[in-house]
Amino acid sequence: MAYESAKIRECIDRAVNHTWSIPEFQRGFVWKATQVRDLAESLWLDYPIGSLLVWNSQKHTEERIVRDAQRPTLWVVDGQQRVTALCILSGRKPYWWPSAEEWEKTVKKYDIRFDIDAKEPPYFWVANAAIRRAKGDRYIKVSRLLVLDTEKEKDQQLLQQLAKEIKVQGLCDGMDGMEVYARLDRIRKIRDKDFVTITTDQELEDVVEIFSRLNSRGTRVTEADIYLGIVAARSPGWVRDTFLPYLKTLAEAGFNLNPNLLFRTLTGVGIKKVRFKEIDDKFWDQESIRPHWDRTKEAWKSLVARFREHGILSNDPMPTEAALVPLIALIDKYPKERFESALYWFLQASRFSRYSSSGTTSLDEDLRDIHDSDSMKAAIQKLLRRFTHDKPLEAEDFLCDYGDSRFGRFILYLLIYRNKALDWDESGHRLGFEGLQVLGDFRPQWHHIFPHKYLEGRAAEDKINALANIAVIGPSINIRISAKDPLSYIQKYKISRDKLKQQFIDEEISEVNIVNYESWLTKRSERLAAASNEFLNQLKGD
Fold first, then answer.
1. Same domain flag for 349 and 432
2. Which pLDDT tens digits describe the chain residue by residue (542 residues)?
3. What is the distance between the alpha carbons of residues 178 and 330, in angstroms, rounded to a whole number?
4. Is residue 231 in a domain?
5. What is the number of domains present in the chain?
């Protein structure tokens, strides 16, 4: 291995000018805006940010699988997230970014600002509406400074002029012009910090193994990342041209999946196994994988359509995603049979945390049951027998903390969707819809019917956050209601009796006060339990 120290600006140049590229087994950019912000602050505070691992593939031309035609020999194997984040901070598009249009959207989303008046952390912010509206140049775009090279007279003058303007604007109490300039220049000098680069020319399998053992600032490398590399080596172009685009297609449909999960639905359909180590390498060959992949895509297409009929518009509110693997296998094997019974099993598997421990063992067991059955009904009967208990939901299930009950929130949303509930704002749109158009990106807003601030100090915390005190509404009205008491916001926003009933809220709410709040809470929990059991029994059928 070879070690070198390169300036951050040099690393950005290599990414922008295509000196570096990324191998196919690399993930796309997955960092959140807060992670990009934290990287900027770490550099400002002179904290270490790790090293880069670069693969020199010159000796392995037969295995080069990249995103472009020019096929550079130097690929960033570990550190792509950091290099891309640095490009974002500087406002310069790396060569591997898919398009200029997507880049512009990303730069707007990851708008990192420096607070020129900050005396202590946080120094850096992800810009929101308030920051963008702030007076003058208090919150400076980091990219505005990182492009400046003060060895050039013009850039030096620009930085001096900016410091003067900020001082004139009165945004830095207690600082003179030179101090303001020094703070701005300190950000600019980030581009001149050293970034240790390690270059290796080992075999692809060794590089993938190295990659699997490295983590980039908390974004964990998964088993799927390793196998993306293996598959990329055995089926050149498949990951880039087929797998990753379909992953993006599902995300656009509302189902933002981990590659690991999509892989497991593929192997679950193909060979009824999910343990990657038990899968023969030949499975990943182009000719072998194609029919299994076609069936997997068809099953996913059907599942997304079926889910939407029940208001499941994304994987975001799901209590568990692991149960999607057997669900896809059920749909693949029994495409024309009653979906509701499969949905019933899916909800029960979520409720009883079927895959919370020994997940791969349980998945393999359930996949075998599906494979060995001659009907969906028979398969589901086998699957349900694996639960240690199966009892109706009770009122107590809706008195638990809504934050701790992913299943409770999920079933609550499904009930409300089933009731064709309308949003509480003036639009009156059905929840999950914009007019007649289904919203693929709808995310339920968990609204305290009796707001937390209204009840704080007047009711027990567990009663305030009880699931029975939660309604599902849209984001706009949720923000406006804020801490208002129910009677006030019901009247102010003209929330009709019908809209309340759709959420299992009776008209008695107008008479509820602190004294009888717990009694009201119990009654609503009983109604929710009864409605949930009715819903589940209908799904179960015969």
1. no
2. 566 778 899 999 999 988 888 766 566 788 889 999 999 999 988 887 877 888 776 655 444 444 444 555 687 877 888 999 999 999 999 988 878 898 999 999 999 999 888 877 788 999 888 888 877 888 899 999 998 887 788 888 898 899 888 888 877 777 887 888 888 999 999 988 888 787 877 665 565 556 555 544 444 445 555 566 667 667 777 877 888 889 889 988 889 887 888 989 999 999 998 887 788 878 888 788 899 999 999 999 999 999 999 999 888 889 989 999 999 999 999 999 999 999 999 999 999 989 886 678 899 999 999 999 999 999 999 999 988 777 899 999 999 999 889 999 999 999 999 999 999 988 888 888 876 677 766 778 899 999 888 888 888 888 999 999 999 998 888 888 878 888 888 989 999 999 999 999 987 787 777 778 899 999 999 999 999 999 999 999 86
3. 69
4. no
5. 3
| 389 domain residue, yes or no | no
Beta-strand ranges (E) seen in 348-506 are 433-434, 437-438, 445-448, 470-473
At 417, which helix (H) or strand (E)? helix 406-418
| Residue range of the domain that includes 130 | 1-221
Angle CA 10–14–15, to nearest 5: 120
Q: What is the DSSP letter of 221?
A: P
Q: Is 495 inside a domain boundary?
A: yes
